[in-house]
Amino acid sequence: MSVQMDKFIENLREQYEMLEDQVVIDAATKFKELEDWDSLVALSVIAMADEEYRVKISGDDIRSVTTVRELHDLVRERIGVNH
Fold first, then answer.
1. Predicted confidence band of residue 1 (pLDDT cuts 50, 70, 90)
2. In angstroms, rounded to a whole number, what is the distance separating the alpha carbons of residues 82 and 31?
3. Is there a contact between 36 and 18 (Cβ–Cβ < 8 Å)?
4. Which tens digit of pLDDT belongs to each residue from 48-75?
5. CA-to-CA distance for 51 and 34, rounded, in angstroms?
């Protein structure tokens, strides 16, 4: 399964219901520092990983990463995609 960064960012952005369009998310974004981050968004990210990529990530996994790239790499690692 391919985990393209652009599509991953698009999927991640969808988890933030109130995020304004002008807010830029890229690989270096510290996603937990975005204005709307809360426990519901964290649960949505966990669900997104399961639905879109068929991988299980936990709250501990989310706490262990900081940037979108790190989260992306975690998902890639779980599905066995080499860099």
1. low
2. 23
3. yes
4. 999 999 999 999 999 999 999 999 999 9
5. 23
Tell me the CB-side half-sphere exposure of residue 65, using CA atoms within 13 A. Answer: 20
Domain count along the chain: 1
Cβ proximity of 17 and 46 under 8 Å: no
Q: Where are the alpha helices (DSSP H) in the chain?
A: 5-13, 39-53, 59-64, 68-79
SS3 content of the chain, % helix, strand, coil (to 5): 55, 0, 45
Helices (H) and strands (E) in the chain, counts: 4, 0
The pTM assigned to this predicted structure is 0.90
User: In terms of pLDDT, which residue wins out, 50 or 3?
Assistant: 50
Q: What CATH number should be reported for the domain holding residue 62?
A: 1.10.1200.10
* Domain boundaries, position 74: 5-18+26-79
